[in-house]
Model the fold of this input.
Amino acid sequence: MDHINETFDHDDHSPFGSDETINLTEYRSLLITIFFFMIGLFGNSVMLIVNGYILRHAPGGEKRTFENFLIEICCFDLIVLIYHLMNSIIRYQALPENDTDIMTGLINISTVCCKLLTYIVRISTLMSHWLIILLLLNRLFLVYSKFYRLIAIVNAKYAV
Done:
């Protein structure tokens, strides 16, 4: 019976742990976000530079949909990375001083930020996913000669 009483014997004032635990968790979250941001920034920057060079020096103005897909994926991924870095920094800098300041982050600055930033991040994530699918379809159609006629369809839909 004591086990049941221990279950209900907790402080509702801070359901996620003590302030030190919350501070440590937010600090770790910030460090992890910065680490992955740096990796993503480096990788996406390299991809943008290399693919930009390839597109710029393509012979005779040749259309290169593969490089276009990669550049767009990198841009959308950078938008998501920047959002998460900014959000993590704001959350860490605005750790609650009292119970009324618990909600922090970019989406809690204002209603406009909430709606606009949520929309931008969701659309960027979805665009990145769909561009990867189109990239894979493009490669599939190029590899298998049966599907070679469908490349024009994918490229036409991509151009729109």
